[in-house]
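Exercise: predict the fold of this chain.
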Amino acid sequence: MGRDRAIFLYPCPQTNNNRQMKKTILLALLAVCAMSAGAVTKDNKKENPNKPVFTVVKENPITSIKDQNRSGTCWDYSTLSFFENEILKATGKTYDLCESFVANKTYMDRAIQVVRYHGDCQFAEGGSAYDPLYCIQHYGICPESAMPFPGSLYGDSLNNFNEFFKVLTPYVQAIAKSNSKKLTPAWKNGLQGILDAYLGKCPDSFVYQGKTYTPKTFAASLGLDWNNYITFTSYTHHPFWTRFAVEVQDNWRFPLSWNVPIDDLAKIIDNAIMNGYTVAWGGDVSEDGFTRDGLAYMCDTKKIQSLEGSDMARWLKLSKAEKKNIVDSLGVNVPEITPTQKQRQERFDNWELTDDHGMVIFGIAKDQKGKEYYMVKNSWGETGDYKGIWYMTKNFIVANTMDFMVNKNAVPKDIRKKCGI
C-alpha cells in the first residue's frame, strides 16, 4: 500500500517495468473490488424461502402495462385496459385507448353536477368503472395518439395532477358556492380551458391507421356492444338479486350494481377468467396484506402476532412498512381470514372497507402450497417483483371488493337467470 501511494504522490520516469507493475496492481485491486461487490449483491438478493412460486392455471391476454403516475385516475386506466382486453378477445386487435379523453369529459360532467348541487357533493380525481363506459357511450373515445401524451403539456413525462387539481378544484368550488342569482355559460368555457391546458383538447375528428374518425365513429368501430357491461357487489343492507348504487363518493353517477351473496363474487370472477374474459375490479388496497412487491393476502393479524411472538399492543405500534415486511417474510405461510358476509358488511359500515383502487383481474395462479391467487394488472408502471402484475389471493379479493365490472356473457348462467339478465 505504501509503495502504491508513493508512486502516485511522487511520480518517477515511466519505464516499461514501472508501467507493468502498476498495471498488475491495478488489475488486482479491480478484481478484489469486483469480488466484494459480487458478494454484497448476492447477500442483498438473498431469496426468501417463503416467497411464492406460481403455476398459472389460466391467463388471458392483456394489453401493455400503463403508468397513471401522480394522478387519481386508476378508475380510468383500469377500465380502459379492461375494454382493450375485451376488444382483443372479440377482434384480435390491440388498441391503446386514451385516458386523457375520458378524464377531460368526465371532470367536466362531474363539475356540472357539483355546481347543480351548489357544492354539496364531492369534486375529486377519483371515479368508478362506469365513468369510462358512460363516456364511450355518450361521447365516444379516441386512441392515445390522437391527444397529447400524458404530462407533455406541462413539461412532465407522465401524469402529474398536483398543480392541475390545485387550479381546477378551487375554480369549481368558487362557481358552486357562488352567491350569484344566475350563472352564465362562461364558467364552463373557463373550466374547459383548464381541462384542455392540462389534459389536451379532445379531438372532433382524427386520422387513425389511414382512416378518419370522430370519437363516436371510432367507438362504434371497435367491435364491442357497449350495452354488455354490468357490475356486481355484495352487501346485506340491500336485498340480494336486486340492483343499487354503491354508497361511495366516487360512484357519483350512481350506476346500479347487482347485489349477490358473497360466495357468488368469486364464482363470477372464476367463470369469467376460465372463459377468456377479464374483470375490471374496484376495491380496497389499504390493508396490511397488500404489499408494494406485487402480493396481497387477507391477513389474520392475530395468528401473525402469535407467529411473530408479539401481542396486539406491539403489532399496533408497528408502522405499515414494518407490517408489510413481516407479511412479505411469511410469504406462502401468511395465515389468512376467510371472509364472511357479516364481516364484509361490518367493514363497509365502519369505513374499514374503502374504495381505494381500480385494477384488472386477468388470470388465476397457484403457489407451491396450492393456494389460489388472481393475477391482477395494475397501473403503476412495471413496478414490484412481477413488473406491474399483482398476485392477490381469492380471500383478499372477495373480502376487499367494492364492486367489479364484467361482460354479462361471462357471468354463470344460473346467476344471470336470477338477475334476469
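Check your answer against the key: The two ends are 83 Å apart (CA to CA).
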